Amino acid sequence: MKKLILLFVTVFAFQFSNGQYLVDIENATPELEQRAEQKAEMLTKKLGLNGEQPLLVRNKILEFLVKQDEIIQSDLSKE
To answer: Of 19, 30, 33, 18, which is closest to residue 64 (Cα–Cα)?
Structure first.
């Protein structure tokens, strides 16, 4: 029974974390994607990243840029 509960908790936690991550990246504009790609390439060269690391860095930068853009847009709408 404990293993079954642990399995359910793991599955639901994994689905929740993946769903939350994809929503931010889906809202990205082509301009934000290009900026994230440029910054990721720069960091890849400077840090010597390999394998999946450049893609993970690009996704995190893109996520940051999308959130930054949302904050800027919300501040502009208040004025």
So the answer is: 33
Q: Where are the domains of the chain?
A: 2-78
> Using CB atoms within 10 A of its CB, is residue 64 exposed (0-12), middle (13-18) or buried (19+)?
middle
**DSSP codes, the chain:** -HHHHHHHHHHHHHHHHHHHHHHHHHT--HHHHHHHHHHHHHHHHHHT--TTHHHHHHHHHHHHHHHHHHHHHHHHHH-
Q: What is the pLDDT of residues 27-46, one digit of tens each?
A: 788 999 999 999 999 999 99
